[in-house]
Amino acid sequence: MKKPYVRMIVTVSKFRVWLVDGRFIRTRIDEEFTNFGQHFRFRFIPRNEFWIDHLHAPGEEHFYIDHLLVENRLMAEGMDYNRALARADRAELKERRKIDYIQKGIDPGRPKTAYVRRIHKRLLKTYSNGLKVWIADGELVRDLFFIDYTEGGHDKVYRFIPKAEVWLDDDLTAGERRYVLLHEVHERRLMAGGMDYTHAHRSSSHIEYTFRHHPTRLKLALAEEMALNKSV
Q1: In what order do the strands lie in the sheet with 15-20?
Q2: Rounded CA gap, 153 and 206, in Å?
Q3: Which in 80, 82, 116, 218 has the greatest CB count within 10 A?
Q4: Long-range contacts of 114-120 (CB under 8 A, 24+ apart)
Q5: Which residues contact 25 (CB under 8 A, 6 or more apart)?
Q6: For 197-231, what is each residue's pLDDT tens digit?
Q7: pTM exceeds 0.70 for this model
Q8: Would you say the C-alpha torsion 53, 58, 61, 64 has a positive or negative sign?
Q9: φ and ψ at residue 59, rounded to 5 degrees
């Protein structure tokens, strides 16, 4: 199988850090791969490598490397993924906060919701009929609200997202955007109907994976889901 390497960006300790083709991985290997990964989370990644999706905006790579160093070390020592993730998140968040306060002018005394206008970057009018679909500043969402935010989200999962809104990370290419949007609106509809997140996410991952392999049917499937979301 073709390995999805784009280019190596740095060597940190014993690890080679690669930018990789995330879309290839999500389509051919594992749809759950998002921003980055390491061997003990994704066994297809070699032990001495960290992978970062090349689509992501410049400037976050060093945060991801900090995270991966902690997560990899703890899982190598036997810690389960969820506990290692929480510890790695704290280490990453500590570094993000420093940059926020120094460079981005974030005031820790202001309510985080005051920054939603800065997160909204562009309204996708084609899809915004009853439901608003925004291209969102993903880095700022991770900085302020939820460090594990990746690709997209909606108001039924994240309380910080305003009612009847879906946010798509600005890191996504136009080609990836529609698959992620299909995932989010399908998941949102199921949760609005009373399904719990775990089962709604599983169904949405299946739908996303299916249409990645049948792209000619994506436009119709997305239109149907968008129509169903108008009333929920």
Answers
A1: 5-12, 15-20, 49-53, 36-38
A2: 17
A3: 116
A4: 115/140, 115/144, 116/160, 116/162, 119/144, 119/167
A5: 4, 33, 51, 53
A6: 989 998 999 999 899 989 999 999 999 999 999 87
A7: no
A8: negative
A9: 110, -15
